[in-house]
Write a structure and sequence with these properties.
Layout (H helix, E strand, L loop, with lengths): L20 E5 L6 H8 L11 E2 L2 E2 L5 H7 E4 L13 H11 L5 H14 L16 H13 L5 E5 L7 H18 L2 E6 L2 H7 L2 E6 L2 E7 H6 L4 H10 L3 H7 L11
Parallel strand pairs: 1-6, 1-7, 4-5, 5-6
Antiparallel strand pairs: 2-3, 7-8
Length: about 250
């Protein structure tokens, strides 16, 4: 019996520029994770091309790619070494890329920790001692260490409590506006994406079924699947209500 060929993605064409946030939304199994891995160079597409600053992604070395493209993953409990100090985790990319001496790396890491709202008392804490929200802040600080031009966030709040989700969403929005980086935010929840994205791509069964600026897509969706996602997102108003508030001040991170 011949095995049927499975296509995880079909005819997906997306772009994001500096200062923009592209939201990619769809249910589990729609191809979001596969697309994210291809964007990060962790999987190779069987067809098509990924361009980074007009150059094919596979034309960059791994080190070059890391300087331009970084990620924040879904599970803060597995993306950090639980036995390492916060300050060392954040400084690790600088060490790998041989940027600065030990003192300069520690100073840069401390600045990044402050930027994401981590109090100084946690700098020497082990990752295992932190809450989920605090760990995700560490992951964000580490991702920003090399000053990337694109930050890919793969469901970065879905493992967190609703109130903490809102804090992380506000933090990402504030950082994106302050640093002017391009951001790709992947989620299954349109209520979350609406808060962050300048434009949104909706995926279903490996295909891009709709793409528009955020307000157009939210208020005048064209595809039935988009309307289904919007109806399900309405059952989660607490996220957008919390997220409408101000970001937490440094030293009060949850």
């Amino acid at each position: 019996m011949r095995r049927r060929r499975f296509q995880a993605l079909r005819d997906v064409s997306l772009s994001v520029s500096a200062g923009q946030t592209l939201g990619i939304v769809g249910e589990s199994g729609c191809g979001k994770t596969t697309l994210t891995k291809i964007m990060l160079g962790l999987l190779r597409a069987s067809e098509g091309t990924i361009l980074l600053k007009g150059r094919p992604l596979d034309g960059y070395s791994r080190m070059e790619r890391a300087r331009l493209l970084q990620a924040v993953f879904q599970d803060p409990y597995s993306s950090l070494n639980p036995n390492r100090r916060v300050i060392d985790i954040v400084a690790q990319p600088l060490l790998i890329h041989r940027l600065g001496d030990a003192r300069a790396r520690q100073a840069r890491a401390a600045t990044l920790c402050g930027l994401v709202g981590l109090p100084e008392r946690l700098f020497d804490a082990r990752a295992a001692q932190l809450s989920g929200g605090q760990r995700q802040r560490v992951a964000i600080a580490r991702a920003l260490a090399l000053e990337p031009e694109i930050l890919i966030c793969d469901e970065p709040t879905s493992a967190l409590d609703v109130s903490v989700q809102a804090q992380i969403l506000n933090l990402l929005l504030e950082l994106q506006q302050r640093l002017g980086i391009a951001m790709v935010f992947v989620s299954h929840n349109l209520a979350v994406v609406e808060h962050l994205a300048t434009h949104v791509a909706v995926m279903q069964a490996g295909e891009l079924v709709e793409m528009a600026d955020t307000q157009t897509l939210i208020h005048a969706p064209r595809h039935p699947y988009t309307r289904t996602l919007l109806n399900s997102a309405l059952s989660l108003p607490a996220i957008t209500e919390h997220a409408a508030g101000s970001a937490p001040t440094p030293g009060t991170a949850s």
